[in-house]
Amino acid sequence: MRAKQQRMCVACRRKGDQASFLRIVSAADGRMGINPGPHMQGRSAYICNCYSCYQLALKHRSLQRSLRRQVPEEILQELEKLIKLEDIERKELV
Ligand SMILES: [Zn+2]
User: Fold this and answer.
1) For residue 37, what pLDDT is reported?
2) Count of Cβ atoms closer than 10 Å to residue 77 Cβ
3) Cα(51) to centroid(ligand 1), Å
4) pLDDT greater than 90 at residue 94
5) What is the mean pLDDT of the chain?
6) Considering only CA atoms, which of 48, 25, 26 is closest in space to residue 35?
7) What is the domain count for the chain?
8) Nearest-5° angle of CA 20, CA 86, CA 61?
């Protein structure tokens, strides 16, 4: 059995397995999605599910660089929503 492939956050460059990141996929047909599931294939970028990495990625345009194309505003907004939600859930668990 092969070792699990390591993914890397585009913002802080932390490494880990895929499940610990949000995945942004840029499909060949021009669509883009966040955690789209196996039906959507294309170039992928990974980011930690934390607000500091989101801000860092925005600042350095890390997602755009990694996906080699513009990231639409609605994708960025969706990502921000996902990250904020996760953050709130985590606080409620503590
Ligand atoms: Zn990160």
Assistant:
1) 84
2) 10
3) 9
4) no
5) 90
6) 25
7) 1
8) 70
Q: What are the tens digits of pLDDT across the range 59-84?
A: 999 999 999 999 999 999 999 999 97
Considering the domain boundaries, does residue 45 fall inside one? yes
Q: Are strands 32-34 and 15-17 parallel, antiparallel or unpaired?
A: unpaired
Specify the residue for token string 């996760």.
Answer: 86
First to last CA, the chain: 37
What's the maximum distance between 2 C-alpha atoms anywhere in the chain?
A: 42
Distance from Cα 67 to the centre of ligand 1, integer Å: 16
Distance 91 CA to ligand 1 centre (A): 19
CATH code assigned at 11: 3.30.1230.10
Reduced 3-state DSSP string for 21-77: EEEEEEECCCCEEECCCCCCCEEEEEEECCHHHHHHHHHHCHHHHHHCCCCCHHHHH
- Does residue 1 lie within any of the structural domains? no
Residue span of the structural domain in which 56 resides: 6-93
